[in-house]
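To illustrate the input format used throughout this study, we show a single complete record. The first block contains the structure-token representation of the backbone; no residue identities are included at this stage. The design step must infer an amino acid for every position from geometry alone.
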């Protein structure tokens, strides 16, 4: 078997898994699973379930290794940080609140303290490890399953928006409007006069992981033609929301749940869930702003389906992150 782990000099005790030249998707995934166990403490039983979901897909991973060309290595990303990435991004206060490493509490700073949070969000896109490349080619249904495998869940749209805008507010879903299109339009009209981005009140190039490139000849979404040319998570430390969440803009776009009724809200314990919502921008945004995008923006129903549909959308620049309810 090819070498699964490439060790770089981050510390004497921690090795970073880097997709190895010439490795297969399965080999790269196994290296990532080992890293998830070592860095985040994911259990053997959880990894077994995660592996089942990856293997059933045949595409989930950090991109098709035959065509993916990452614009930055983990070594280069580490050089941008003042200390070991695992230490730099570890937050003891957050960990006490959330009960897991590399998660951040969501709350409204105007009225609450971090300790008041009832939900936490992964600080980075899945696999939620500093300087790991985001997982892509994942369906919304698979994202929900992968979060559940670790005792977490997929997030509702308003929770992701709260993380990006720096304040988790009460949900404002207008279920009475009767359609997701009308709900989205109402929401965007409400917040369109108060646009913000994770790092401030106007959009800027160069702040987030958005200056990569599409594979030459990428035809819009083929496995063999489109690389997941993402950056290491956390490579841009200023791409951070006021609540301490990274890469909400840039790198992978992210699956979320848009409930169409109160009993479809993941934040209220629903396992039925609503329809797909694709959050954030992706890795070419500094070059090509393909559509509107800001912290509380809700996208049109592109490639829409129910979140739990086995044929929900997947592509080379679409990933996810998980949430967990605070007990």
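Output of the design step:
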């Amino acid at each position: 078997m090819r070498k699964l782990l490439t060790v770089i000099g981050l510390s004497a005790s921690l090795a970073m898994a880097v997709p190895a030249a010439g490795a297969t998707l399965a080999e790269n995934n196994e290296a990532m699973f080992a890293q998830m166990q070592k860095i985040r403490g994911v259990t053997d039983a959880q990894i077994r379930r995660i592996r089942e979901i990856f293997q059933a897909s045949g595409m989930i991973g950090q991109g098709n290794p035959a065509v993916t060309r990452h614009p930055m290595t983990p070594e280069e990303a580490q050089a941008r940080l003042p200390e070991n990435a695992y230490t730099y991004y570890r937050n003891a206060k957050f960990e006490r609140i959330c009960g897991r490493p590399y998660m951040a509490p969501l709350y409204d700073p105007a009225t609450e303290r971090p300790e008041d949070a009832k939900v936490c969000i992964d600080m980075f896109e899945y696999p939620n490890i500093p300087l790991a490349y985001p997982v892509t080619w994942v369906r919304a249904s698979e994202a929900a399953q992968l979060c559940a495998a670790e005792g977490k869940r997929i997030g509702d749209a308003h929770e992701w928006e709260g993380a990006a805008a720096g304040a988790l507010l009460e949900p404002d879903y207008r279920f009475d409007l009767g359609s997701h299109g009308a709900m989205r339009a109402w929401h965007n009209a409400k917040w369109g006069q108060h646009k913000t981005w994770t790092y401030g009140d106007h959009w800027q190039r160069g702040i987030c992981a958005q200056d990569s490139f599409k594979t030459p000849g990428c035809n819009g979404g083929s496995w063999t033609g489109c690389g997941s040319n993402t950056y290491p998570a956390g490579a841009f430390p200023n791409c951070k929301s006021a609540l301490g969440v990274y890469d909400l803009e840039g790198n992978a776009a992210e699956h979320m749940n848009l409930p169409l009724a109160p009993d479809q809200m993941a934040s209220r314990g629903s396992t039925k869930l609503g329809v797909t919502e694709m959050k954030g921008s992706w890795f070419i945004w500094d070059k090509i702003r393909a559509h509107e995008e800001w912290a509380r923006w809700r996208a049109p129903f592109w490639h829409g389906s129910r979140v739990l549909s086995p044929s929900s959308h997947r592509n080379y620049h679409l990933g996810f992150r998980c949430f967990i309810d605070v007990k």
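Structural context for interpreting the output: Residues 25-325 form a domain with the paralog of FGE (formylglycine-generating enzyme) fold (CATH 3.90.1580). Confidence is low (pLDDT under 50) at residues 1-15.
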